[in-house]
Structures are given as structure tokens and as C-alpha cells.
Amino acid sequence: MSRPIRVLVAEDQSAVRAGLVLILRSAPDIEVAGEAADGEQAVALARELRPDLVLMDVQMPRLDGVSATRQVVAEGLADVLVLTTFDLDEYVFGALRAGASGFLLKNTEARQLLEAVRTVARGEGLISPAVTRRLIAEFAAKPTREPTADPAVLDRLTRREREVLSCLGEGLSNADIADRLDMAEATVKTHVSRLLGKLELRSRVQAAVLAQELGI
Length: 216
Known about the structure:
The chain is an alpha/beta fold. Helices cover 51% and strands 13% of the residues. The protein has ten helices and five strands; from the N terminus they run E-H-E-H-E-H-E-H-E-H-H-H-H-H-H. The longest helix has 15 residues, at 185-199.
């Protein structure tokens, strides 16, 4: 990107927030646009500052991170990268369904945090393959607490787009999908963009959750 990636940091613990800000400011291509101490402030600042990305803690006072994520995504204010202490709690599922572009554990190393911000800013969702496998297992093990998606939505997709959606459900990157389906990576990006539009989804991670819920 020609300009810095503008990030809003939403974290209620001041020490943790300061550490995140310090890490982000160490990268020349990332700019900290603002800081929020709770969910309501995160939404308000996202509306005011229009950052590229919100680094969102899921457990915050006044308005939890899942609800804040839902508002930010619904209004098209920014992409959301969720931070959580636990890799498979209900907060994570809720945040992904709400449209978060990915999630990271709070104990993630600084280098990985910076790369995650860059990845999401490029429009690629972020869930590590190991965590994706566990997510799929979790979906298979128990019914979701929210209504599952209507399989009829798949009728909007071409055969190729369904194949790409299935790959997204496995947490594959564009490069991995290109290798598996024997197509150019640029073509994969086009298919991902089109299927997101047809399914009215904001992120590829949301598409992955849908694929898991539909079992494709």
C-alpha cells in the first residue's frame, strides 16, 4: 500500500493496549489512528476516524467486541481483526459470524501481529490453518447457537465459485486455492470477490464460516 495502514486499537486493559500500540508504531507502514477503551468508544471512533482496520478485543465493557464488530462491519467502517485470550470460545465464533476478517490470540508474537494487520489490510482473511481445522471440528461437533444458513444461497454461485468457497472453508490461501484448482491466483481473487458479492458477505473469513455451517 502506498500509504500507511491506519489502525484503531480497541482494548480495555490499558497496559495491553499500550503494548499493542507500541508494536504497531514500530512498523513504518502502519499508523495508529486512535485508541478505544471499550466497545462503544470503538464504534464511535471507527465512525469518526474511518481507519483501515480495527484491532478489537472481544471482551470489553459497555459494548462487547462481538457487538462492536457487528456494528463496524454492518456500517462498512473498517475491517476488524479480533484479539482474544482463547482460541475457540464462543466470542470467536460470534465475532467471525459478525463479519470479522480474522482473529489472533493475545499472546501472538509482535512479528505475527504486524503481518496479520498487513494480511487483513490486503483483503485476505486471517485464521491459521491449525485453528481453522479446530474450527471445522468444533462446527461438526455441535450445532451453532445461531440459525444455520440456508443452503439455497449456494444456488447463486457457479460451480467454480462453490469450489472456491469450499476451499475458503478449509482456510486455504489464494495461492493454495490456485494450486488445488489449477488456476491463476488472480483468477482466484476474482472468484472470491464475486462470491462474496453474491452471498452479501464482507470478508473471506465470513465465507469460510458459511462454508463450514453448510458443510461444503
